[in-house]
Amino acid sequence: MAPKKGNNLTQEQKNYQKYAKDREPKRPVLKNCIKAFIVGGLICDFGQLLQWGFIKYFHFNEKTAGDPTVAVLIIISVILTGLGIYDHFGQWAGAGTAIPVTGFANSMASAAIEHKTEGYVLGTGGNMFKLAGSVITFGVVAAFVVAIIKITIKWIGGV
Amino acid sequence: MLQGKQSWVFNNKPVIISSAAVGGPFEAKGPLSKDFDILHDDLWMGQDSFEKAEKMLLETACDTAIKKANLKKQDIDFFISGDLMNQIISSSFAARTLSIPYLGVFGACSSSMEALALASLLIDSGAAKHVVPAASSHNAAAEKQFRYPTEYGGQKPPTAQWTVTGAGAAVICENGNGPHTTCATIGKVVDMGISDPFNMGSAMAPAAVDTIKRHFEDLNRSFDYYDLVITGDLGSVGHRIAGDILNEQGINIPKERFSDCGLLIYDEQQQIFSGASGCGCSATVTYGHLLNRMKKGELKKILVVATGALLSPMSYQQKESIPGIAHAVAIEM
Predict the structure, then answer these.
(1) What does the alpha-carbon distance between residue B69 and residue B74 come to, in Å, rounded to a whole number?
(2) Which of B148, B158, B195 sits opposite A3 (nearest CB)?
(3) What is the CATH class of B12-173?
(4) What mean pLDDT value characterizes chain B?
(5) Measured at the alpha carbon of residue B141, what is the angle toward residues B139 and B144, in degrees to the nearest 5?
(6) Do A24 and B195 touch (CB under 8 A)?
């Protein structure tokens, strides 16, 4: 959530922002990236193991094993969210836990739990997609645009 | 009585005859835990929502303060309170239970001193005999309203702050034993264009500086007058900025006599980023820790400068910057 740098700030405000910035602790970006890489990678490795497990022991093929794999990851993420563990893990791992499907599950489960006090319909139901909603919206829009491009290229005789 | 531009001097010296601080489980682990009257070991406090838990915190703080003053609810003329919830529901709902004539105030985290300043003014002018000023905040309720769900695993930057789960209340009256409020400076809104809600220390620091400077000018005082000048919830970032600006403007501040409530309530092992925040921060530290130290004789004159960030969850999404405010009240033995 980067603050938008407005051009209508006065010189005094601009000076202060620089003054304050010099005194703020910086986000440890490199450290965060390394942690995110390792944790995100490990979650994906775990997913890969699950997929192989489903193929080897439960007679799924490479295509169909995807669904139960994602389901298991989601269940684990939701349980950890409910137990109040996932947010601490998320603070440490950052994007590593936010980007994989586990982060998506956490954003929905946490909102659902949080708004249970406002009832199942207006609370849980209405707020579950509070954070995840924009992911779905822009995911669908992006997929649509990409599909249009693909079809157009095919139509004009491309690959 | 108005003195200077924006300060009130209370010639009748209203007395804080009693005070109470109530906290939650995270506060119980902090270094000031002994200064709390009641500490809850659960964030829910036996209620079915965080909002109700906050209301209960506030009610308990008021009840305890009134009891400690050997008074009954009926003896209290006015209840002045503020909190962070939309439409200040914690205060209003607590007022419903207390059934004391009520004035709701909102100055975000500066509500604690806004309420104390107004309470002192009512007593000083003879408009009331007993007034209860109070303020509260609840970590999970504030997170829910201003940021993300409590269990959401988003990463917070090091400039973020931890909202205190707690409520503080006091009983102010014309005469009696205890520390008295001698003057107050009402701050003006200062906005230096900071718009990151995870960096409220930087947003509020200029307001704190403005109020402190104005207080010294109005009352013709310097830092030397006070044993302690303590800001509300600037955290390590805002506190450093405020100190640096004051120094650069030629206001000499001895380091040991300039502090921040947000830096006292938790210790470094608790993951609180740059410090504590919330109405409950300055309220519990002032009405618990600081008044206790005054009664023990460790402090004689203090100036509490409660700072508030006047943003709403909608205003920052609409890219508005965060206006800051600070109100100061001088408490002397």
Answers:
(1) 13
(2) B195
(3) alpha beta
(4) 94
(5) 105
(6) no
- What ipTM goes with this model? 0.84
- Is A146 domain-assigned? yes
B180-332 and B12-173 share a CATH fold: yes
For residues A98-110, average pLDDT: 92
- Supply B279's token pair: 């109405």
Domain coordinates of chain B in residue numbers? 12-173, 180-332
For residue B140, what pLDDT band results from cuts at 50, 70 and 90? Answer: very high
Percent of residues in chain B assigned helix, strand, coil, to nearest 5? 40, 25, 35
Q: Is A4's pLDDT higher than 70?
A: no
Domain extent at residue A42: 29-128
Pick B152's closest partner by Cβ from A16, A27, A106: A106
- Is residue A94, in this structure, part of any structural domain at all? yes
The distance of A118 to chain B (nearest Cα, Å) reads: 9
Q: Are residues A108 and A143 in the same domain?
A: no
Q: Are residues A73 and A91 in the same domain?
A: yes
Per-residue model confidence as pLDDT tens digits over B272-314: 889 999 999 999 999 999 999 999 999 999 999 999 999 999 9
Specify the fold of B180-332.
Peroxisomal Thiolase; Chain A, domain 1 (3.40.47)
Is residue A102 domain-shared with residue A123, that is, in the same domain? yes
Q: How far apart are CA A65 and CA A126, in angstroms?
A: 32
pLDDT (0 to 100) of residue B253: 83
Q: Which residue does chain B place closest to A77, by CA atoms?
A: B153
Do residues A52 and A115 share a domain? yes
CB-based contact B152 A110, cutoff 8 Å = yes
Residue B289: the pLDDT is 95
- Please, are residues B155 and B191 in contact by the beta-carbon 8 Å criterion? no
Nearest residue, CB atoms, B48 vs list A26, A28, A117: A117
pLDDT value at A149 more than 50: yes
Tokens of B46: 């036996």
pLDDT at position A159 is: 64
Q: How far is Cα A82 from Cα B150, in angstroms, rounded to an integer?
A: 11
Domain-located, residue A4: no
Task: Answer whether residue B194 shows pLDDT above 80.
Answer: yes
